[in-house]
## 1
Amino acid sequence: MNKPFDPVSASAAHRIQREESAGYDRRVIDYIHHAAASGLYEIRGLGAKRHLPSFDDLVFLAGSASRYPLEGYRERCTTKTVLGTRFAKKPVELDIPITFAGMSFGSLSARVKQALGRAATALGTSTTTGDGGMTQEERESSKTLVYQCLPSRYGFNPDDVRRADAIELVIGQGAKPGGGGMLLGQKVNPRVAKMRTLPEGIDQRSACRHPDWTGPDDLVIKLNELREITDWQIPIYVKIGATRVYHDVKLAVHAGADVVVVDGMQGGTAATQTVFIENVGIPTLAALRQAVEALEEMDMRGKVQLVISGGIRTGADVAKALAMGADAVSVGQGALIAMGCNHDSWFGDGVAHSAESDYAVLGTAPGFCHHCHTGRCPVGITTQDALLEQRLEPAVAAKRLKNYFKTMNMELTTIARACGKSNVHNLEREDLVALTIEAAAMANLPLAGTNWIPGA
Amino acid sequence: MESVMLDRSPATTRTFDLEGGSTRELNQFLHTDLAASGVRRVEVLNPKGAHSIAVGVNHPVEIDVQGHGGYYLGGMNKHASITVHGNVGWGVAENMMSGMVRVKGFASESAGATGHGGLLVIEGNASLRCGISMKGIDIVVGGGVGNYSAFMAQAGRLVVCGDAGDALGDSLYEAVLYVRGRIKSLGADAREEPMGAADIAGVGDLLRRAGLAYDPAEFKRVASARQLYHWNADANQEY
Ligand code: SF4
């Protein structure tokens, strides 16, 4: 039976009554309600959640008729990586080009730092301290430990400088370039407070600028001081949060860095203002291209090594970063996830224990958690709570980290061989094309199936 | 007196002339050969404002720098006792752990920045950010200090015999500041407090060690009001 024509059907009327605004969608409404209720901006962990042009938007052109691939399982493909060949008498030698990013004791428990060290040692790679000094646990468990020198200088001391394998002077972090560290009171337990010389339980907001130098000319002198203290033995890295990458990389090289670390805006954090995470800095893809250009223009590629970080998650990401010109990558958030971040369970005594109710207490669920700032990490990673931290067994966590990095490394060599490279560092820009115009423009690569490089 | 005489005997003194030599040679000696050398005093001639003089020393030794030093003189010092017979650039004794650094002249910015221990004496004036982020060091300034001194100072004591500039002790933690002269302005969360008996004794001891003959009772005490230790939206805090 035909219904009479109804110019405004009931369902259409219903939809019109519920039409969502693009400008004031539920996300924005929630944001305004939260601001109105609390008078305080949102602070959270994890990195940028918004969609960004990324390594996912690139694909490889492997061997075919014009160039031939290597046998997947029979022909060698080396992954050895050396960082700090410019001035250091003892460069950092790694078996793989994948390293652990700097994460602080304070944001992470001492057990996590130990797990990272154990895994790094087993993998033949390096791990890095963070904004809270060097713990005995991580020094003992790490064969190669990079010691960060941050604006706060919490726990920074010459004895640890002397037992470091490299120094990383941190100018900025991808999640918050231009911002200082943050550690909320719940995580400032007696040990953390003592290491940082702070009162227990305070909401720590650290400085964003270094206390004893300002600007690129001073940086030259500061790096020289660190070299003098370490007798020019170990590499000095400079880490920048990705903003004006092209200029910053040039300045870091000019200042005498052995290694430049560029951290893009997808980089993680344990506690930062959401407005900062989502709105400051540029994507890792764009940052990497600018960093490589700066090095090439200075004729410093291969002389000053480039480490890229910020949203490196898979072996494909590593391969793409190397092909674009990075010498190594650093992984932070991915490492936490490998240890069980956002997992529904934690593992103790060989048994899985559900953590769902603990996520629920935080108002979240596995897969959506970004609550590192609370110190109530349901799986015992980003916590200083004596009970919660027991949920992470260093041996188990180290094994998982090792598996994750091994997987990425195998994926990397799989792609490198397919591209005909017997050394992962021989991957090149020629091997890549972009899937989107944005990625093509940012990475300065042709759009797939064309010779078109936007802006070139 | 006797030990000083002994220290200054030629057999236990080693001289580095930076006119012909380099800071590199000096620091390498201080780091690797000093301990076994029997040298108890090192004299640095013609520093001419060179940077990173005597950084990272980890041994009890007397070092006399005969002239002006550049940035980071005595940086990260442990155990050594360093005297500069001149002025210094930025970050003198930055991150010092122990020992002593004495500047006979003036010091530029960020003197004693992030220092964890030891005593820094500046007989003249110190510029901006003196004692920034200090973490336990004691600093005595014979003259005045510039703006933003003791910014985010976490622990230790800063004694200023002259005047202090703007925003003294901004975002102060547990460090305590003592000023004899005028304080142009206090920074956020810093407040003046009455001098107690322990303050008088402490300042007296520091002045004695610095060789400055002022009466501790003339000093004002500045410490943290601890209002910025926790987030508080209703207090209109600046974040
Ligand atoms: S599971 Fe733990 S580490 Fe992961 S986001 Fe939540 S609080 Fe942070």
## 2
Amino acid sequence: MSVQYLADAAYREEVLLFFSRVIPGQVIEAITLFATVAVFFSLMVTPIAAISVYIERRLSAKMQSRIGCNRLGPEGIFQMVADGIKMISKEDFMPQGADAFLFKFAPYLVMVGAFVSFACIPFSKQLLLADINIGVVYLLALSSIVVIGIMLAGWSSNNKWSLLGSLRSAAQIVSYEIPLGMSLLIPVIITGSLNLQEINQFQSGGIHNWLVFYALPFTVPAFVIYFISALAEVNRTPFDLPEAESELVSGFHTEYSGIRWGLFFIGEYHNMFLISCIAVTAFLGGYQKSAANFPFVIVSLFFMFFITFHILTFLPKLGFSLFQGKNILDMLMFHHPKPMRRWLRIVCLILAVVVSILFYINHAHSNMIQVVTFISKAYFLVLFIMWLRWSLPRYRIDQLMDLCWKKLIPISFICLCGVLVWVVLI
Amino acid sequence: MWCLGVGGIDMKQYILDIVHGISSIAKGMWVTFTYLFKPHATVEYPEVNVESMLPPRYRGILQVDMDLCISCLACERACPIECIVIEDVKGDKTFVTSKLTQKPTPKVKYPLRFDIDIAKCMFCGLCVEPCPTGAIHHTRKFEGSVTNVADLTYSYIRDTDIELAEKQVELLANKKEKEQA
Ligand code: SF4
Ligand code: SF4
């Protein structure tokens, strides 16, 4: 009954009117916005780091002929909880001679810079926290805040490795911002808007409208250049010079431990997801309906169903054995027998295909479907970044600069001019 | 093209560099991609019995077959880090069948103490080689962790060995008495 009331617009008006007599309207608006942001971050953005860490661990294990974490919970899915608890419960250590305030402040800068950027990413038609007109500029500006965080971390640690790492990071990020900005200008030129939502809307209608295929000889290299320089921006391998383990212990976060180190870690994984989100929004059609989304949606739905089934079949067993008073750690070490796993895989694949077809049909009506489409595409790029990390060795600093100044910048400039001509002529 | 050549950049080399870079990255990534579909090389250790997967000449924790040991001290002398300690007494002569040659080997000394400090042992196998009866040998066991390092000093003497030693010492003494008489 109450649901009916809430769905009734007149009733909702009445409730709002009642509240607005007590509380001013701006406060209600602020509270609603705050609640949206809180729900959004806690449900969508925060788990990304944990899930990415888990996926990266399993993926890297597979690529190195290992098994990876599969002990805690079905297929090791609770490993991320254990990692989190470990990180929080470790000692928070500060070196002697460190600049206390900056040392404590730096991780927040890095993390907040990564978090706040998500505000203008259009996850779906309505799920967009801030529909700002200068979305692209906003993203580029915020990516520089992360650099400040890294610089402060390196400088305040009172450690030469940290300082070297942070200086490298500064040099790297400042150089790579140029090709990054130039390649992000290309979607802006084509759509004539800095608003990410409008850039997204421009690509509706299918794969041929995706900006990466708009002016084939120029936009494809531009996309590649965007991806490479974004990788360098977030210090991911093969551009992880600021934290090169073999040379600088671990670069700018050498002196960090416990949850402060964890904040850097979370920031790194969020940045990874962020650059994938921007790539999807600006080049790969965003959340728009397209038959080309099928493989991404099917794969991500498959893994979602697979993990859900595992947890669902695992929980009764866990509850039962807790009831019997057995050791919880023994119980968490749970493996499905092999034939059951194969059987589950087939069921999940069929379910994923069916559900993705349903998604395709109902795409326009549901925000949730659009979000799933968007995230599965973005996650595909995240997987690609991980794949790169476990395949390629690290660049040397001169090679890094050579790549940026002699290759990426001229080529992105040529692409930019080419797209300008293309837009004018065609 | 000539204007780009001014900066000392060889255009042909430039393009070749890019092509080579992209193709080598693609090659590397293909290699890691194929690994996604290969079975893993590691095993889940405590559940899987790895002892059967060890190589045939695996040198695990030492074991001494006290029924065969003739207390010749060859192993104690061979050990480069002196982690074998043997104390023995002289007794009446008996024969044991060597595991290596299947021939009876005379035994005149009887060990009362046979300790090997596994914590020090480096599993070099030098003690196994001189043993005339094959009493001391490597097992395939490798799980030796204990909470107290003193527990790693393995003692191979059983109660029956001490009984035997006492019996043989008595026999020898009786023999000597008879001879003197
Ligand atoms: S294996 Fe080597 S170190 Fe160990 S007891 Fe024998 S001789 Fe000594
Ligand atoms: S070498 Fe063999 S027979 Fe001789 S004391 Fe050692 S274990 Fe016994």
